[in-house]
């Protein structure tokens, strides 16, 4: 068309729209009038019956609609009540939980206070008891000392001895009794002493007393007898002093002194001195001499420290004037006065005090030295563990012995410091230990996990910790008589352990091995252990089992037979039923109940063996039972230790069998065995050393099934072993060894994945702890409403809360908008609830909806520009949210189609070259399109939206096949099958009858046909046919997809201009139609709001869409009236000029010779290029034109109807036939149409108020068609509604 034709065309279009609007406003009346005219004066009764039937039908529909609404309202109320009830129950449970926690805290606080009060009371009682004992001991010593010092006046005369018994037998027997003095014999020995005359046996009695083997508790009885001797016999004391001196002189020559005898002797002579049997000069000199010899001889080894401690505890207060720290604290705290040490003068006590303090100084030096040596030894062991993974048995034993002696020395030093009231020396910690190992676990300080306390320490979470650590205490519920066998077995094992140890020590002493030699060969042994498979642990158990006493086995079998016969068949049935129900114990409560039931009712040796056999033979498919079976074993262990031992022995044997056999079958059984070992290790039933040794055996032959077994073991107990202090270093060494073997060996991809998963499960890479952002309470409340509380049931409640926010505050409004834009924070299934909430919020806050939609569109566009995989989930959520916004009428369909076309056109390289925005291997845009169509595509099922979606699907298929045809997809790396399934699912959902393309060429052909069809509809088929076809030919290679899409959109919008039912944006529609006619590329700049108003219409239903929002308001002014008058004048002139012109029809058909027309059967007229009528229902006749030289030749072709060419041509013929019939009917009904227009004008003049669509519309003079003139809009399909 030229420029002159455009105004006339637009005027006709506008006139058609005015009439169409009048038709919509008076639709019911017009239909009624048409029915009356067609009926030709039909009977009034039939019309009334029809009206009555319509009213009844309408009434029934209203009743049904009312019932549905009532049911929906009731259902909604029920859901609301249910939600409120659940919320109330939840609040009550939370309240009860808070009250329970407060009550527990209060009970714990009261318990702690009671314990503190009891501790204070106990401490007070101990202080008073100590005070009382000190005074009693002081008074007793004073009495004895006074009586013994005045013995010269009270000794009996010679006549007294004549009345006593002097028989040899009794006196000799009494002297022998003095060698074994005990506290229980005090009264008997005192009675015998009173009736015997021992004047001739004093020397023998002294020898017996000096050589007597006394305990510390028997010293008081010996002192009592010495006092009796001293009071009766004058020569007893000198002989006793002389005997003690000889005894100590003889002890100097002994190589291994008896420390216990020395301890009692030092206390004995101190008590004799304090009681006055020895004079202070004699007794104190003897004590000082012996004490000095002990201290100087023990200056380096301090092996006699117990002698010094015993001396200070029992006699230090009187001999050395010692006041212990405990006495001093009690005296200061409770104001108690302890007895003074005035029995011996202070000048005589001072040398003893100096001597003891000198010994304490040397003892502290020795302690510091041992502390440093222990730290050095720990450092060496730690270095060996870190480098080799384990310690040798000799080094481990050496460390344990040294640590035991150090702990003993430390305890003795603390005791002596309390007795002397001295301070303990400072023992510095080894800081280099942590630096050497890094941020690991200190294996020598258990309970301090260090950097590995990752929200639960050893365990993954709190539930796992409770499962593996919080076991029920059967001893608290079960009577002790039911597990008496366990105590007997434990005692026997302790005795058996002690005997081999003694024999081993004796053997070592016989061999005479030097510890230095052991240290020299240590490194060589460690290297050999790393090279060979060492079965020491399991091998020792084998030897122990083989060397077990056969008589013991026979006794146990005999006991088992007796138990089975005694229990009878009833218990056997109970046990069998218990073992059958054991696989059903699949939670913690059931397995704990089973453990208690077994311990209460079935605890016999035979039943325990049956239980072990049942646990060991767990089916290999039931791996879920292994944690619960391990918990059962751990629960029964305190009462039945043999269950765990027997089960571990059987598992070790099974593991050893599978490792040595090296077959490639029964992998499920092997995995079951190692998983059971791992679960028992987490319950500490299977020792960590044995578990790590099993892992080491698997790593030694790291191939095939051993790889799977090692990975299974690590996935079960690897994290537990790695984070346990005592096994951390050895586990880390084995893990590093496993990773090195993975790098060195060429493993399958499956094995590599298994090894890496096991390694990172045990030792996950460090992750920075996210710092939670602190927000104001109002923002936290908004996030809680949107991200937690919002659901399908609580939408109305959340909407009410959101409406109560301070919307006048710009910060609050901005934060709510940002929270809604960040839709990825909401659960995916709850995105529609946010769209529903926003739709309910827009009538009250109009700008919120606009800002949210803009933000979502901006996020979608930004996602395409950035194109980073980490934002994929975010992009999916945004696209889903956009589709839900369309479902709730927050956006128009034009926005949806614009986004859909941008997904398949933005940044696309049609030549196959890689682009950062859409690389060849990236298929995420296909997923975005499918997500958006799955969300809102079901609503594009009629009207212009349906045709637009059909057009888009054509371009979408071309994009899909273009992706499939790229070189990145090969046989080894095929196109993902899940994407194919996703595409087929969405296409079948939206267009189940649509024929899908099978190749890229077919898809391109469909796009070209679609574009050619719209070019014809745009009127550019004749004038620009050749040029347009050239453009389409170039479009296959160079034309951008975006232009194609916009051409498709322009064509659809041109076709559907007459379907617009909204007159709000009429001027924009007219401008859009003009631009489409002038130049198709200008349609890209058309405002999408104008298109959306068009696309929201439907052809069958005249439902007006009320758009809520702040639109532009029209303000009347004089310029508008002048513009409207000038425009109408120009349109009228153009229309008058065009009335005389004849309409030219494009000649598209090629003439067929007359001789061929007779051969072709009559049918629809030919449409192009030698096409003819169809011969029958299966074929269609075409005429093919060829040229040979200068002569044309024609040939008739029969094309099957199922071919695309014949089908398209037949459809085109049918459409043209229908169009001709419609044009014929319109021409014949001109008179009726004019009468309808007169009737419409009459109704308009009678209307009381103007139409609400556009107030400026009535100001323009309406153009009246001449009577009987044809409607150009309907004829040329440029306006009006098609029927």
Keyphrases for this structure?
single chain; 1283 residues; mainly alpha; two-stranded antiparallel ribbon; disordered N terminus; disordered C terminus
Molecular structure report:
- The chain is mainly alpha-helical and 1283 residues long.
- The protein is built from 53 helices and two strands.
- It has a two-stranded antiparallel ribbon.
- The protein is elongated.
- Residues 1-34, 434-456, 494-555, 1022-1111, 1162-1175, 1248-1263 and 1279-1283 have low confidence and may be disordered.
Main β-sheet: number of strands, strand sense, barrel status? 2 strands, antiparallel
Helix content: 55-70%
Number of strands: 2
Number of helices, where a helix is a run of at least 4 consecutive DSSP H or I residues: 53
- In the predicted model, the low-confidence regions spanning at least 5 consecutive residues are 1-34, 434-456, 494-555, 1022-1111, 1162-1175, 1248-1263, 1279-1283
Q: Major sheet: order of its strands?
A: 1-2
- Termini separation: 27 Å
Shape: elongated
Structural class estimated from helices and strands: mainly alpha
Mean pLDDT score, rounded?
76
Based on the structure, what is the oligomeric state of the protein chains?
single chain
Radius of gyration: 54 Å
Beta-strand level of the residues, as a percent range?
A: under 5%
């Amino acid at each position: 068309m030229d420029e002159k034709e455009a105004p006339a065309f637009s005027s006709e279009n506008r006139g058609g729209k005015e009439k169409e609007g009048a038709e919509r406003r008076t639709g019911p009346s017009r239909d009624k009038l048409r029915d009356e005219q067609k009926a030709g004066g039909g009977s009034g009764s039939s019309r009334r019956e029809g009206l009555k039937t319509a009213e009844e039908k309408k009434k029934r529909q209203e009743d049904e609609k009312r019932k549905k609404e009532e049911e929906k309202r009731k259902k909604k109320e029920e859901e609301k009540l249910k939600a409120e009830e659940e919320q109330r129950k939840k609040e009550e449970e939370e309240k009860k939980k808070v009250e329970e926690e407060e009550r527990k805290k209060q009970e714990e606080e009261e318990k702690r206070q009671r314990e503190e009060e009891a501790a204070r009371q106990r401490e007070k009682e101990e202080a008073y008891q100590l005070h009382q004992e000190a005074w009693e001991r002081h008074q007793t010593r004073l009495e004895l000392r006074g009586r013994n010092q005045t013995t010269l006046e009270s000794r009996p005369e010679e006549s007294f001895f004549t009345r006593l018994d002097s028989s040899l037998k009794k006196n000799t027997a009494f002297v022998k009794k003095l060698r074994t003095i005990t506290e229980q014999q005090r009264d008997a020995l005192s009675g015998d002493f009173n009736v015997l005359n021992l004047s001739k046996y004093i020397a023998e009695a002294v020898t017996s007393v000096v050589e007597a083997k006394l305990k510390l508790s028997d010293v008081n009885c010996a002192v009592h007898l010495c006092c009796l001797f001293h009071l009766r016999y004058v020569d007893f004391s000198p002989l006793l002093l002389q005997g003690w001196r000889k005894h100590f002189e003889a002890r100097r020559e002994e190589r291994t002194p008896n420390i216990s005898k020395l301890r009692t002797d030092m206390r004995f002579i101190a008590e004799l001195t304090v009681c006055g049997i020895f004079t202070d000069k004699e007794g104190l000199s003897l004590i000082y001499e012996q004490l000095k010899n002990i201290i100087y001889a023990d200056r380096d080894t301090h092996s006699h420290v117990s002698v010094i401690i015993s001396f200070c505890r029992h006699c230090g207060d009187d001999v050395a004037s010692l006041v212990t720290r405990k006495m001093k604290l009690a005296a200061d705290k409770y104001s108690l006065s302890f007895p003074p040490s005035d029995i011996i003068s202070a000048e005589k006590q001072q040398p003893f005090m100096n001597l003891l303090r000198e010994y304490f100084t040397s003892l502290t030096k020795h302690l510091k030295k041992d502390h440093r040596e222990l730290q050095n030894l720990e450092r060496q062991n730690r270095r060996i563990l870190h480098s080799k993974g384990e310690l040798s048995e000799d080094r481990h034993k050496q460390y344990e012995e040294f640590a035991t002696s150090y702990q003993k020395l430390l305890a003795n030093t603390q005791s002596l410091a309390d007795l002397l009231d001295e301070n303990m020396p400072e023992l510095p910690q080894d800081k280099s230990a942590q630096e050497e190992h890094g941020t690991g676990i200190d294996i020598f300080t258990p309970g301090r996990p260090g950097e590995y306390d990752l929200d639960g320490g050893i365990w993954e979470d709190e539930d796992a910790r409770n499962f593996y650590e919080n076991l029920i205490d059967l001893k608290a519920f079960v009577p002790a008589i039911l597990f008496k066998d366990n105590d007997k077995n434990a005692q026997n094992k302790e005795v058996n352990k002690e005997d081999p140890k003694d024999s081993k020590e004796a053997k070592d002493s016989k061999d005479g091995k030097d510890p230095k030699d052991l240290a020299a060969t240590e490194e060589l042994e460690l290297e050999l252990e790393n090279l060979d498979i060492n079965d020491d642990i399991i091998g020792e158990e084998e030897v122990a089992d083989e060397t077990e006493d056969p008589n013991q086995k026979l006794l146990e079998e005999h006991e088992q037979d007796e138990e089975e016969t005694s229990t009878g068949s009833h218990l056997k049935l109970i046990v069998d039923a218990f073992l059958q129900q054991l696989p059903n114990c699949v939670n913690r409560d059931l397995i704990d109940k089973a453990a208690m039931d077994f311990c209460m009712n079935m605890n016999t040796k035979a039943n325990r063996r049956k239980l072990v056999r049942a646990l060991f033979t767990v089916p290999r498919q039931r791996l879920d039972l292994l944690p619960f079976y391990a918990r059962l074993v751990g629960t029964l262990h305190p009462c039945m230790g043999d269950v765990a031992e027997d089960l571990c022995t059987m598992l070790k044997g099974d593991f050893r069998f599978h490792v040595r056999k090296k077959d490639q079958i029964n992998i499920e059984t092997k995995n079951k065995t190692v998983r059971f070992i791992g679960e028992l290790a987490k319950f500490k039933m299977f020792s960590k050393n044995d578990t790590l040794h099993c892992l080491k055996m698997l790593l030694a032959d790291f191939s095939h099934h051993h790889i799977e077994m090692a990975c299974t073991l690590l996935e079960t107990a690897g994290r537990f072993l790695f984070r346990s202090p005592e096994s951390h270093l050895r586990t880390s060494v084995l893990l590093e060894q496993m990773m090195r073997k993975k790098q060195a060996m060429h493993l399958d991809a499956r094995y590599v994945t298994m090894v890496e998963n096991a390694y990172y499960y045990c030792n996950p890479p460090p992750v920075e702890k996210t710092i939670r952002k602190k927000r104001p309470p109002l923002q936290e409340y908004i996030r809680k409403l949107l991200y937690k509380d919002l659901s399908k049931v609580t939408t109305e409640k959340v909407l009410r809360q959101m409406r109560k926010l301070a919307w006048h505050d710009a910060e609050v409004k901005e934060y709510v908008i940002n929270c809604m834009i960040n839709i990825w924070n909401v659960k995916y299934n709850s995105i529609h609830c946010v769209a529903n909430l926003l739709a309910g919020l827009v009538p009250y806050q109009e700008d919120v909806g606009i800002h949210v939609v803009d933000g979502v569109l901006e996020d979608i566009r930004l996602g395409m520009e950035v194109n980073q995989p980490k934002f994929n989930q975010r992009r999916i959520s945004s696209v889903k949210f956009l589709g839900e916004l369309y479902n709730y009428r927050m956006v128009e369909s034009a926005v949806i189609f614009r986004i859909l076309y941008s997904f398949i056109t933005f940044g696309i390289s049609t030549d196959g070259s890689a682009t950062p925005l859409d690389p060849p291997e990236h298929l995420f845009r296909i997923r975005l399109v499918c997500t958006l169509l799955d969300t809102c595509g079901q609503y594009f099922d009629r009207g212009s939206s349906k045709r637009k979606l059909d057009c888009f699907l054509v371009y979408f298929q071309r994009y899909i096949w273009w992706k499939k045809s790229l070189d990145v997809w090969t046989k080894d790396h095929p196109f993902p099958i899940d994407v194919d399934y996703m595409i087929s699912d969405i296409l079948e959902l939206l267009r189940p009858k649509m024929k899908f393309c099978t190749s890229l060429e077919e898809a391109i052909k469909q796009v070209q046909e679609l574009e050619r069809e719209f070019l014809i509809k745009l009127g550019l088929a004749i004038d620009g046919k050749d040029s347009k076809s050239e453009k389409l030919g170039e479009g296959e290679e160079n034309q951008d997809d975006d232009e194609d899409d916009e051409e498709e959109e322009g064509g659809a919008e041109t076709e559907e201009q007459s379907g617009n039912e909204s007159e709000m944006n009429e001027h924009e529609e007219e401008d859009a139609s003009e631009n489409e006619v002038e130049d198709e590329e200008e349609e890209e700049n058309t405002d999408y709001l104008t298109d959306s108003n068009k696309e929201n219409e439907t052809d069958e239903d005249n439902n007006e869409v009320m758009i809520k929002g702040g639109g532009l308001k029209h303000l009347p002014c004089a310029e508008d009236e002048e513009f409207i008058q000038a425009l109408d004048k120009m349109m009228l002139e153009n229309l008058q000029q065009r009335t005389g012109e004849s309409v030219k029809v494009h000649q598209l058909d090629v003439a067929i010779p007359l001789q061929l027309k007779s051969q072709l059967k009559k049918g629809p007229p030919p449409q192009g290029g030698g096409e003819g009528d169809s011969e029958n229902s299966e074929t269609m006749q075409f005429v093919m034109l060829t040229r040979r030289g200068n002569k044309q030749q024609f040939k008739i072709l029969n094309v099957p109807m199922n071919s695309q060419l014949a089908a398209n041509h037949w459809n085109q013929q049918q459409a043209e036939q229908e169009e001709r019939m419609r044009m014929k009917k319109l021409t014949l009904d001109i008179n009726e149409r004019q009468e309808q227009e007169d009737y419409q004008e009459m109704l308009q003049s009678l209307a009381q108020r103007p139409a609400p669509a556009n107030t400026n519309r009535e100001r323009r003079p309406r153009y009246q068609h001449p009577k009987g003139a044809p409607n150009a809009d309907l004829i040329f399909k440029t306006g009006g509604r098609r029927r």
